[in-house]
Every structure is written in structure tokens, then in C-alpha cells.
Write a structure and sequence with these properties.
Helix content: 40-55%
Structural class: alpha/beta
Shape: globular
CATH class of the largest domain: Alpha Beta
Distance between the termini: 33 Å
Strand content: 5-15%
Strand order of the largest sheet: 1-2-4-3-5-6-7-8
CATH superfamily of the largest domain: Alpha/Beta hydrolase fold, catalytic domain
């Protein structure tokens, strides 16, 4: 897969499809390209050019634990730069869970570069904030405190980053553990401060300021509650909400395979939304 130099980092990406509207999609969690490729392939088959990528600190892209902003703001700006290099702006931007947060921040930070939003498994609420703050940052902070950067490198997520890109071990080992802890703690605060927000990372005022249309598929578990997705639909003026997963799982996460089984249905839903939005904007 090609590598782009984006804001000082090496970013692994892939373009699916050869014609049609440009779309950028991010997976959930810290998953790599494989976490979004099934849906992206189906959407490309509907007549779109879909860009998928490994965000920094994910997949085969560079590990860079630095920055004064939240990791999601950094990701949003990275995606904007990648899409700009590809001549793919303005674009439809979307994602699942953490990818959804990234897409919302893309729209807030680069409103002229987005044509519409494709959002699913929207994240919000105190349970999600506290759980994800620990999963994405807290456990790594504790490892660095206990065993320095060598201990961090032995954790599953970072071992995978090193296997995907050998240079990432040097990048991690060269870090001062105190600086790693400082940045990770700052990024963790992003989640902890979001417990009372409509969705993690955006205020009600932020969401009401979004002018582009949005297609929203709420989640169905305790991290991605249906109510969170429906609330987002009420706050973004030009939005449509589609409940494709009515069964709620009283668990941190619902079965991923159920979402994979709906990839074709979701691709058709998003394709129809894109077509309607493109017609309105023409």
C-alpha cells in the first residue's frame, strides 16, 4: 500500500474505487485499515472513491506520541492533509466509534472540506468515557510508570505497531517516559471531560454548528448507546437517523460480526444518502 508523508509522519493508506464522489472512512478503536475495509469495499462498489488509512499510532503508520491537542483533533487534521494531497476535497467523511469522533472533529475544524458525514456507533456517556480513557491511555500510562518504555513496547497494541512498522520501536524507546505519560494523560482528559457531553469530544453548541448533512446509524451497546446516536441526530440539523440494530446488548460492545453482516446494507444506505446530498448540493 502507498505511504504518504502527512504533517511529518508516514501514513499508510489505500484508495478503493476509481470514480465517483470521494469518501474518507475511519475504523473504530485503534484498528487498522482492515477494520473498515469490508464496508469501504462495498461502498466503492456502489460508485465511490473511498480512502482508508492507518491513523498515526495505528496500523502501519508512524507512532508519534506528541501534540498539544487531543489525539482525535490531530487525526482529523492528518486526514484533511491526506485528502488534500489526493485532490479529494471536499469529501464525505465518516467512521465508526473513534472514527465517528474523528469525522465530527474533521467537520468542526475543516467545515469547507466536508460534503456530508457518515456516522455509526456513536460514542457517549460516562461509562464509555471512563472505559475508553482507560483502554486508550490509562493502561499505557501505568505501564510506563512501572517499567518505562520497554514495558510499553511489550503491550499488545504497541507490539502490533512495531510488527507492522519496525521503526516504531525506536520511536517509542527514544521517548522519555515522563513525556509519554504527560501526553497520554493529556489525551486521557479528552475522554474524562466528555462524560456529560452529548457525544464524546463535542458540545451541543459544536454539533448544532454543523451545516452539512449527516447519515447516522446508532450503536447498540453500553459504549455506543442508541440514545447517543439519536441525540446526535437531533443536534445536527440536516441529519437522518437509521436504526439498523434495534437489539440492545447490555455489554461494553455488541458482536462485531453482526455489524460486518450488515456491511452491504449500510453501504447501500450511505450510497443513497451521498446521492441525495450530492443532488441537493449540485
Amino acid at each position: 500500500m502507498p505511504i504518504a508523508k502527512v504533517r511529518g509522519i508516514n501514513m499508510n493508506y489505500k484508495v478503493l474505487g476509481e470514480q465517483g464522489p470521494w469518501v474518507a472512512l475511519s475504523p473504530g478503536g485503534r484498528r487498522d485499515i482492515s477494520g473498515i475495509e469490508l464496508l469501504a469495499t462495498r461502498l466503492a462498489a456502489e460508485g465511490h472513491r473511498v480512502v482508508v488509512f492507518d491513523r498515526r499510532n495505528c496500523g502501519a503508520s508512524d507512532v508519534v506520541i506528541d501534540g498539544a491537542e487531543s489525539e482525535y483533533e490531530i487525526w482529523a487534521d492528518d486526514i484533511h492533509e491526506l485528502m488534500s494531497q489526493l485532490g479529494a476535497l471536499p469529501a464525505f467523511v465518516g467512521g465508526s466509534s473513534s472514527g465517528c469522533r474523528t469525522a465530527l472533529l474533521f467537520a468542526l475544524r475543516h467545515p469547507q472540506s466536508v460534503r456530508g458525514l457518515l456516522l455509526w456507533r456513536v460514542t457517549g456517556g460516562r461509562f464509555a468515557c471512563e472505559r475508553l480513557a482507560e483502554e486508550y491511555y490509562g493502561q499505557f500510562i501505568e505501564a510506563a510508570k512501572q517499567g518505562g518504555m520497554a514495558a510499553v513496547c511489550e503491550m499488545e497494541h504497541w507490539k502490533e505497531r512495531i510488527e507492522a512498522r519496525a521503526e516504531n520501536r525506536d520511536a517509542l524507546m527514544k521517548m522519555n517516559p515522563a513525556r509519554f505519560i504527560e501526553v497520554m494523560s493529556h489525551w486521557r482528559e479528552y475522554f474524562l471531560k466528555g462524560a456529560d457531553l452529548p457525544v464524546i469530544g463535542a458540545t451541543e453548541e459544536d454539533l448544532k454548528s454543523i451545516k452539512v448533512p449527516a447519515c447516522i446509524v446508532p450503536g447498540n451497546d453500553n459504549t455506543h448507546g442508541r440514545q447517543t446516536g439519536e441525540t446526535l441526530g437531533r443536534l445536527i440539523a440536516k441529519s437522518e437517523v437509521h436504526v439498523l440494530f434495534p437489539k440492545h446488548y447490555d455489554e461494553p460492545l455488541s458482536p462485531r460480526e453482526e455489524w460486518d453482516e450488515k456491511a452491504g446494507e449500510m453501504a447501500a444506505l450511505f450510497a443513497g444518502f451521498i446521492k441525495r446530498s450530492s443532488t441537493i448540493g449540485a
